[in-house]
Specification:
Layout lengths: L3 H9 L6 H8 L22 E2 L2 E2 L3 H23 L5 H16 L1
């Protein structure tokens, strides 16, 4: 339910929130307690736990393996990247000139 301060902000900004809009903001799939907030089960993000352990969401496995492979690929790529700094080029050039002058 919208408070009087929220209603005042809506009116000051030039639009009045309709009853349907206010109801859609407070609609939840969980039962509400007497104070108007959803009941909590004490777990992070209100997850449900079965007897066998934590129930994973379908996207979690894809995200885990995608991040693992992506970070591993980035680490290998950073390790194997060619050295392209100007000091590395100057060092190689100086070595070649020393070898040719001897």
């Amino acid at each position: 339910m919208a408070t009087s301060a929220a209603r005042a902000v809506c009116v000051v900004r030039g639009w009045a929130a309709s009853g349907a809009a206010r109801r859609s903001l407070t609609t939840t799939s969980r039962p509400l307690k007497a104070d108007g907030y959803p009941s909590k089960n004490g777990l992070l993000f209100n997850e449900t736990v079965s007897g066998a352990g934590r129930v994973r969401e379908p996207w979690e496995r894809i995200y885990f393996w995608g991040m693992l492979i992506g970070c591993g690929g980035a680490a290998i790529g950073a390790y194997l990247k060619p050295e392209t700094s100007s000091t590395a080029w100057a060092r190689k050039e100086a070595q070649q000139r020393l070898e040719t002058s001897n």
